[in-house]
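Quick entry, no commentary yet.
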Amino acid sequence: MTNRVVKIGLICIAAVLCISLLWGFFRFLSRYGGLEHRLLTDDTCEVSGSYDCKKSRVTIPRSMDGNKVVGIGGGAFSGNTYVKSVKIPARIGYIGAYAFAECSNLQKINIPKAVTVIEDAVFRSCTSLARIELHEGITKIGHSAFRYCVLLDKVVIPSAVTEIGDDAFSECISLSNIAIPDNVERLGIRSFWGCSSLKEVTFGKNLWSIGDSAFMHCEGLTNLEIENTTEFLFDIGSGAFMGCTSLESVVIRDGQYLTRGNVFEDCTSLKTVTLGNGMDTVCNGMFENCTSLESITLPQSLMQIDEVAFRGCSSLKEIRYGGTVQQWSEIRFGDLWDEGTGEYRVYCSDGVVEK
């Protein structure tokens, strides 16, 4: 009998403890909307998870369990399909990588002025996000930060930004125009890849590197002008504008450039190209399969045309060259550089050369 009473007593005590713990847990969920936090140092914490947050509108608390909230941790809301809007207090100093990745219903969020870096993949695959305001204190946009934000149609890049990371805006298919501010020095690989609605892009005066495939398949882009105003060799990466099928005109101003392979390959609407003085090489496959290309202006500084540079340019009628006939003959021509081109003529400063 005594043992039975003891057992019943222990069961009752355990039940009371469980109820107390559950009550405390549900009070916590109610108080912070299902948000979890992680203690840092000096009575501070960060929001670390939202696994039980099923609210559509979320306000990040200023404190949790008496600890000041100073940031949103990496992946904190990743994959949360309930949240539609997030309000973040002004004192939040960072939003970690992947913090809101794949929040497919997120439509509205503010970036506090204390946040200076848009971290890697922080808004990747936020497929309902159409607008976001980036304040002037932001200095870097990380890798894949807005990748697959398919409704994002307008972004003003702050003037303090110096670097736009790889895939930062790739496949933002609604983005219509972009202005690269003067402080940006390099655009990452595939930074605007597949932005099929992009019609206009302007480059800042300190840009000296456009990464591989940076604007590949930007099928809405119609005109392009690049100017090197820096003291550096301007690097245009491989396939940087490949497959821009609406591109009609390209002007590369005077200056020193390094162009890598297939920069404008498959730009099937491209009709006219002007390459400025200082460029010494038309790189491998640079205009391959530009089937509408009719006229190109080449500078006297040109020393080399690499293999298959103009292969498949079946509409090519004229090449306007800044040097003499003799200088044209001294250019190093790669294999099959003009295979499949039209019956063009080369107009030199002192005569004409037939194909």
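second:
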Amino acid sequence: MSARPLIVIVDAGSTGTALPAAIAARAMDCFHVRSAESRGEIDAILGILAADDARFVGGLDERTTDLAAMVTILEKLDVRGVVAGSEAGVDLSTTLAARLSVPGSGPSVPGLTRDKFQMTRRVAEAGLATLPFRTVSSPSEAKDWWQETLGGASVVVKPLRDSGGNGVLFCHDWPAIEAAITHLTAQSDLYGSPNHTVLVQKLAANAERIVEVCTVSADGAHRPMMILESSKVGPIYECMRLVHRDELADYQDEIDYALSVLDALGVTMGAAFTEVIDEPGIGPVMIECNARLIGGFLDSRFCSAALGHSQVALLADACTDPTAFVTTTPSAGSIQHARLVHLRSDTAGLLREDLSALEVLVRALPTRLAHRISVSAGDVLAETTDLSTSPGFVQLVGADPAQVAADYHAIRSAEAGGIYRDAVAQGGPEEPHRSAPVMTP
């Protein structure tokens, strides 16, 4: 075991896999804990590292070592903090930090940022604006409230503890609401847990434009480090545009609101990103707050190219030297114009060939930084309904906003022109299969 101080990372996956190297470069080592939540589909989607991965000086797994035993082992080590390495690890990181009496990422109470109902209720109790909401376990529990409180307005129905837009359904009339609740309460989330209860919330007027305020906190001080304007088609994320430093002032209301959300939830340390919508007549309202590193292929290379820093690097700073970190003020506005484009297929079926035409087009884009196409010949292409069914992504970064926009539109034009349909054969297996994704620099 290392003699250096340790940061415990719970469920290092997605962008969190880069955290051990960043912390090691700052003269500390990392210890990995796998939570019981890192199971089901989410384990593969996030690529959560094994407890004994070589990037760590040691590891434990909650499925074979109970909480009390974990605490006993970790108390003997020089642990300086506990952080979540993905959404699956948020609750356990909060619990371990409290038991070890060290700084920890996440809210003041386990579950506050994992359970969308508890999260929204706490924010409302703090006096911050929220959209009307309630939980139900059957359609009958929702109908009177929908008619009397919302006046029959459109709603979003979603699981309480899911990720990546999975199960998020926009509903504009009662038959759709009834069907959504019935469907979701018969399903399990990506973590393998049944959706006994779902959240029903008034649909925001601007639901297809979300501002995501990405932060890193230490000793209760929050530092915005990236602002994203995310556009959606229904519940599907289709593009994330980094807000440039020249337009940052236009987003100050959303930033201030997001920092107040962190305070309301008791987040004092770690990475987070808060999804905010500017609702007419109300102002900023929270969609949700995630007490972890942002994922979605917003990796350190992309962020560093666009911003000059990354959330991973700043979190490593906050973990290893919180006193110095709180004296810094990283710019939240990008220095380059950048977009993360999620590929979107309107076609489902067996791929009879690789998406070679798409590959050629993407590689030729002047502002392409990197991309990933996650399906190939012999796989079943899914129609895109959420992030997990997107066939890949493209990172665009450049000094000229017009060129970045033109490259984005070139991708969408190719998709609309049938670039997926041309590669799909008739028939084939019913369940989509994903090849192991590889980043293409």
